[in-house]
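RETRY 2/3 - previous attempt timed out on the joint model. Re-submitting the same 421-residue input unchanged.
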Amino acid sequence: VSLERELAQLLAEVTGHPELAGLPAEARLFGGEAGLDSLAGTLLLRRVHQRYGVDVAAEDLNLDALESLGTLAAFVAERV
Amino acid sequence: VIKCVVWDIDNTLLDGVYLESPEQPPPADPTLTAVLRELAGRGILHALASRNPPEAARYVAAATGIQFAAAECGWDSKATAIGRIAAGLGIGADAVAFVDDDMIERAEVAASLPEVLVLTPEDAAEVPQWPEFSPPVVTAEARRRSQLYAARQRRQAEAAAFGGSRDEFLRHVGTRVVIASAVPADVPRLHELSVRTHQLNSGGAALTAAEIAGLLGSPAHIVATVTLADSFADDGIVGCAVMERNGAAAWPVPVVMMSCRALGRGVLEALLAWLCRTAAGAGATELTVPCLVTDRNVPMRLALAAAGLRADPGAVPAGGRALFTRSLAGPLPELPDWVRG
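RETRY 2/3 succeeded.
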């Protein structure tokens, strides 16, 4: 399973929307079809920190890593 | 009816963080110690869930004089800990209340265990009067607050069962957000919000009632209140922002604050969109929001980023405020149709 799909699975879990496990890597997380809000985004970052040891919120002031699953996967992959 | 209260330790039952001085740990919080004793006297059990070594639980038991029915110390999620405590005591999650000062811990438990009554330490100080905690007398105010929590649990259960997107859910439950200019009668509530919103507060500092009244009377400032209601409950004023008029230039927003009760209901996003649109409509060229950067206010930073604001990472002093900025030229964030501004 690719890192992107693992992250999609975490996203499905924190939002309670199983269909988000199939979200395309380039889809926008905020605004776009994922419709992420700031709470769901925070819970996702916490799961990422627990699972991969990467603290995105501490390293990325503007949280640009959360643009899409693809950008988040790239950010995490550079640091694990 | 609540049969067991599960308590966090750091900055909840203790007035500080245990591991910062394990040789001489911080004292027990006197208000919550009184609540522990009062509830124990009614036969309600207490338990601990903490990211601390087991010594911390022994210390809390000694410092409060309370026998805890269970203690989960370790790195599992609080939801996992609560699940184990409830199973061990043979009670359902709907008979458990959970108290933690950390908004994100609370949000995580609320998301995975919607039956659990999730409380801030401030609310926990009042629960001896709530009907779920079997008090001898229930006041009208205590009943109203407990009803807001009950409504939140029903909303969470419905959200978990709902198939559509978040926006569709907010519309489905008749969410109504009104953003309006504050009036003098709002001052006590705005002061309370300013004192109680530690984690969804861009400035990080509380405003006195006199400071808020002064801003209301100032023609150079816009003080906006946010009220929230849906088919489950009327939450009243849940948020506030202060913006400075500054002609055809950058308009600063020194204060954005939001009750954690409103988190996940689209309100912070709506307020930021309203600020952008109001400033742009009056000729502002940019919006600037100074925001304290901590590990606790990530939802605030996420909402700022989603509204198109960015800060210069090179210009943030350690533990200081980052200046989040966006241009007001071009397309602005949209206000959802359930918001009246």
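The first strand of chain B starts at residue 4 and ends at 7. Closing ticket.
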